[in-house]
């Protein structure tokens, strides 16, 4: 599958998403592994099976088995951490900030890829999940190795893939009603 097939699934009103997919597919600021992993991490976080299947079909072959496992690990751990740390951040009760999380996340120590790539994919998932504490933590590590433009490119991928997933999901939900109305 190509990025064009995914774009063709989008309705005409989502023309901007189609254009953004094209420009992000041609993005040169990130390494091929960083870009492919960012697309897949975003699709996993967006939680729309057809989008995930399409993105993995497009970008999965650009990743080693270890890198794909690391992307999935980042998405899985951030699905847990983003909820916990968003709670800690939003509740604003000082005692939660001092308590240990008591959540197992040892895979972060040895993700099987360069630490910066894993951090970037964790940032992508955290952007979609809206966890401020995780965004700050992962962005801080990414900044040690990547430029602001590279980090922005990954977050632009997150934003666009999430919007694609939401749009396709909405179209699927509306299809039966629109068929009856026609």
Walk me through what this model shows:
The chain has helices at 3-9, 15-25, 32-46, 49-59, 65-91, 94-98, 115-129, 132-143, 148-181. By secondary structure, it is mainly alpha-helical. The chain has a single domain, classed as AhpD-like, CATH 1.20.1290.10. Helix 3 crosses helix 5, helix 3 (32-46) packs parallel to helix 7 (115-129) and helix 3 (32-46) runs parallel beside helix 9 (148-181). The longest helix has 34 residues, at 148-181. The protein is globular and about 55 Å long. The relative contact order is 0.17.
Please outline the helices and strands.
Elements: H1 3-9, H2 15-25, H3 32-46, H4 49-59, H5 65-91, H6 94-98, H7 115-129, H8 132-143, H9 148-181
Helix pairs in contact: 1-2, 2-9, 3-4, 3-5, 3-7, 3-9, 5-7, 7-8, 7-9
